[in-house]
Write a structure and sequence with these properties.
Length: about 220
């Protein structure tokens, strides 16, 4: 027969193992803020609030960038707030409204306030082109994806944008660095040159300036 002493030792050993496991699970839940653990599949909850000079921005929108490079765009309520439940952690949040923009780095779920600042609303004009022999061409047409096409003559020189992208949180904030915009050349200038404009750029510009970025894009060619 198994003695009571052996049974007690076995029960004690099991209890100790259970306690150690429970402690380990609790500690694991606190490790890696913003990370979704295999033993904790609860969604990550971000409560975002857009403010300007301490006042809620009722017509604001936000774009959240996840750690894997994807993003999500959401419209805030009348109090400038929106909740996001996700299984992927955020790395940054951009808040925008007409004439306002701001960016906030995010490292954990919870309550986050995004402060937006005033932006000077530039006019859509072919400004800054003064060199002799330069010809400026605006957007000829826009497809269903928001990508733009130019039809022009002479030799292509460069593109430029008459209005900047204030507070742009993702990569190079200068929209005039066109190499990242996936330029597609057509065989002949008069047939067109297409510029693939990232959706983030299109949304950001529309939200801040109140009009499409296609109205601010220009192509310059020289004879």
């Amino acid at each position: 027969m198994i003695s009571k002493k052996l049974v007690g030792m076995a029960i004690s050993s099991v209890l100790k193992s259970f306690i150690l496991l429970a402690v380990g699970l609790v500690m694991a839940s606190f490790v890696g803020c913003g990370q979704n653990k295999a033993l904790n599949q609860d969604p990550l909850v971000y409560r975002l609030h857009v403010v300007h000079r301490g006042t809620s921005v009722s017509d604001a929108s936000v774009i959240g960038l996840f750690t894997d490079g994807t993003d999500t765009i959401m419209v805030c309520d009348a109090n400038g707030s929106v909740n996001l439940e996700t299984d992927k952690p955020l790395v940054a949040v951009g808040g925008v409204a007409k004439g306002l923009s701001g960016v906030k780095s995010v490292d954990c779920p919870g309550n986050w306030e995004v402060e937006v600042q005033s932006v000077l609303l530039a006019k859509t004009s072919a400004q800054g082109v003064t060199s002799a022999g330069a010809y400026v061409f605006g957007v000829y047409d826009t497809d269903g994806h928001g990508d733009v096409r130019f039809r022009y003559q002479f030799n292509f020189a460069y593109f430029y944008c008459s209005s900047g992208l204030p507070g742009w949180p993702y990569g190079d904030p200068n929209p005039n660095h066109w190499t990242s915009w996936n330029l597609t050349d057509f065989p002949y200038p008069w047939k067109g040159k297409k510029l693939l404009v990232p959706t983030r750029y299109q949304w950001w510009h529309q939200a801040v300036y109140g009009y499409s970025i296609s109205r601010a894009l220009f192509l310059v060619s020289t004879s």
